[in-house]
Amino acid sequence: MQISVVIPLLNEAESISELHRWIVSVMEKHQFSYEIIFIDDGSKDQSWEIIQEISRFSEFVKGIKFSKNYGKSQALHAGFAKARGDVIITMDADLQDNPEEIPELYEMISKGGFDLISGWKKKRFDSVIFKNLPSKVFNLVARWTSGLKLHDFNCGLKAYRHDVVKDIDVYGEMHRYIPVLAKQAGFDKISEKVVKHQARKYGKTKFGAERFINGFLDLVTLWFFSKFGKRPMHFFGAIGVFMFLVGCCSAIWIGASKLYKLWNGLPNILVVDNPWFYIALTSMVIGVQLFLAGFLGELILKTKHNQKRYLIKEMI
């Protein structure tokens, strides 16, 4: 099979049928062998019923329904696990991603030798203040921290080589940073393609302003895991030892100073009245705690096991 189209969705009943027809027309025009995988992320409208109806008349359509809303990352994870195509295309179900881009994306992966192609919505039809401007700032920071020269990390329209989606682990809210996850997994042939952005035709966006705050926090998490995810002791242990040494040296200085003054009959104060005493004590306590955090992190890494991250209610 040449192409798997993975489409996560939430309450997009109005657009599913139209999107399906559009994708099918592109696939038939270019004579691709394909499958379309819809992942219903706990929709409350008629989305799943529509997917079931489409699947009855098309052997190329598959569906996964979650028991509740788990988020886009979990939906993509489930879709990637089910995908069988040589090239996997992801897109949103709101008709803002254009299926006409699929043939060129496929060519770039299959013949261009790329591992991942990320869409770049260079011209957007979203609110400038609430979406475009924050998105530019977000992407600027993401480029700086990840080293990937992509303009639009959060674009839902992407193409992947089969091996990429099978090797990466999309968790939490990391769907925004799949290119970064791929790079960390050793897939460094990553590029981008300018794609057409459609104005939303039905419904309203499912993401608010909080996605940018969460996005920056996830970026910090991703940076930390890329640096110290496999060796937490190198981070927590190093800081812990440093702080313990600072506290220990301060305590020695306090004790030596006290003994010197007593020996020479100089005026002195109680150790507990010396502010350095509390600085030393606090530094040593925090140092020990950080060291233990690194040690526990190492233990967790050695004993961790895969956990079930979502519950599938139905599958077709």
- The structural class is alpha/beta
Q: How many helices does DSSP assign?
A: 10
What would the CATH topology of the largest domain be? Spore Coat Polysaccharide Biosynthesis Protein SpsA, Chain A
According to CATH, what is the class of the largest domain?
Alpha Beta
The helix/strand order is EHEHEHEHEHEHHEHHHE
- Topology, number of strands: 8
As a percent range, the share of helical residues equals: 40-55%
* Mean pLDDT across every amino acid position: 85
**N-to-C CA distance:** 18 Å
Rounded to the nearest angstrom, the radius of gyration is 26 Å
Please list the strands of the largest sheet in the order they lie side by side: 7-5-6-4-1-2-3-8
Task: Give the topology.
Blueprint: E1 3-9, H1 13-30, E2 34-40, H2 47-57, E3 61-66, H3 72-82, E4 87-90, H4 102-110, E5 116-120, H5 128-146, E6 158-161, H6 162-167, H7 178-184, E7 190-194, H8 210-228, H9 232-263, H10 275-303, E8 312-315
Parallel strand pairs: 1-2, 1-4, 2-3, 5-7
Antiparallel strand pairs: 3-8, 4-6, 5-6
Helix pairs in contact: 1-2, 5-8, 9-10
Description:
With 316 residues, this protein is an alpha/beta fold. The protein folds into two domains: 3-228, Spore Coat Polysaccharide Biosynthesis Protein SpsA, Chain A (Alpha-Beta Complex), CATH 3.90.550.10; 232-303. It is 51% helix and 13% strand. Strands 7-5-6-4-1-2-3-8 form an eight-stranded mixed sheet, sandwiched between helices. Strand 2, helix 2 (47-57) and strand 3 (61-66) form a beta-alpha-beta unit. Helix 1 (13-30) packs parallel to helix 2 (47-57), helix 5 (128-146) runs parallel beside helix 8 (210-228) and helix 9 (232-263) runs antiparallel to helix 10. The longest helix has 32 residues, at 232-263.
